[in-house]
Design goal:
This protein is mostly helical. It is built from three helices and no strands. The protein has a domain of 34 residues.
Length: 93
Amino acid sequence: MLAHWPAYLAHVATELAPRFADAHTTQICHDIARCVDAASTRVLHALPPAADPPPRPPVDEHAQVLKVMARYRETSPQMVLFGTLLRDALPSG
């Protein structure tokens, strides 16, 4: 998405890429995930019960579906954190 602004993309790639491996950043991402889990539980409990159960993936694909969900959950906190860092890296005005 940032390819439209190559100079900005180069800057943030240089400045932010090393943070992906940083232990402090990883811990913050875990903290974000815990907060999201807590909020998700509150949202789910506030929803009306489903009229019908959701469809299940085929048995032979169930493990792959869980793997995809785990990967999505892993990257979402990173997107929240890095989206904030990207926004904050913009010059004002």
